[in-house]
Amino acid sequence: MPAGGDVSRILKPLILLLAGFCFAGCSGARPDGLGLKAGRLAPCPSSPNCISSQAPREDRTHFAEPFRYAGSAEDARRRLLDVLKALPRVRIVVAEERYIRAEFTSTVFRFVDDVEFVFDDAEKAVHVRSASRVGYSDLGVNRKRVEAIRRAFREASGEKS
After folding, report:
1. pLDDT tens series, the chain, 161 aa
2. Are residues 47 and 138 in contact, defined by beta-carbon separation less than 8 angstroms?
3. How far is Cα 11 from Cα 157, in angstroms, rounded to an integer?
4. What is the CA 10 to chain-centroid distance, rounded?
5. CB 49 within 8 A of CB 137
6. pTM of the shown model
7. DSSP secondary structure string, 35-89?
């Protein structure tokens, strides 16, 4: 039987190795269906770990209101980018004229959520889709994040919450 120090020397690297596999696996691969297709964001899957302002309004699990803005889409885009850049653990992956995609990474398990925005200047709306890459339920994390971004976006415009 190994002494206590020997067990520790064997278990610590093994635990670190297993934790590394878990953390690497938790981020998930970037989904293929992201981006705009005919001007629309991808629909949410049936799992409750995705919300979208382009989901049917009667789909209470997935529907979220779009962000509203006054002024130009370019001003709204700049304001949204400023809001996103101020948030922790976010990486802006795409920042085009009408479309923004960001990746949010959780603190502990390094789960990655993909958040997309598309600007519709005719509607004066920013459509949003936020989805977890892995798992079934997100315990409401995507909805809470989108609502926090909405508040910051509104406050950056000078509007009251």
Report:
1. 556 566 566 665 545 444 444 444 455 677 778 999 999 999 999 999 999 999 999 999 999 999 999 999 999 999 999 999 999 999 999 999 999 999 999 988 899 999 999 999 999 999 999 999 999 999 999 999 999 999 999 999 987 65
2. no
3. 53
4. 38
5. yes
6. 0.81
7. S-BTTBPPPP-SSSSEEETTS-TT-TTTB-PPEE-SS-HHHHHHHHHHHHHTSTT
CA angle 92, 126, 132 (to 5 degrees): 50
Amino acid symbol at 42: A
Q: How far apart are the first and last CA of the chain?
A: 64
Listed residue (126, 111, 110, 123) closest to 49, CA to CA: 111
CA distance 21 to 71: 47
Residue 152 near residue 140, CB atoms below 8 Å: no
Q: Which residue has the tokens 């339920």?
A: 137
Distance CA(81)–CA(154), nearest Å, equals: 13
